[in-house]
Design a protein that fits this description.
Elements: H1 6-15, E1 23-26, H2 29-38, E2 43-46, H3 56-68, E3 72-75
């Protein structure tokens, strides 16, 4: 599982200066929210529905939680 394998190694590589940042893309926000609780990613690509008509959950829940952990978001809707 990535949370116990790749993610800690990527964080270690960042701390050692081998990489500047790491992150991953998801289709739903739940994996990103889980990752910020269990790992230390720097950025997410959220390939989910986000538009002027469908944005309330992202603005009030997903984005603030990710920002609180210091990670960035790229929306690829």
């Amino acid at each position: 599982e990535a949370v116990k394998g790749a993610m800690p190694e990527l964080t270690k590589m960042r701390k050692e200066g081998l990489i500047k940042a790491w992150g991953f893309g998801v289709n739903r926000p739940e994996p990103a929210l889980r990752a910020i609780e269990e790992a230390d990613p720097d950025i997410f690509l959220l390939a989910c529905q986000y538009s002027l008509l469908d944005h309330a959950q992202a603005l009030h829940d997903t984005f603030p939680k990710i920002a609180k952990h210091g990670a960035s978001v790229v929306v690829g809707a």
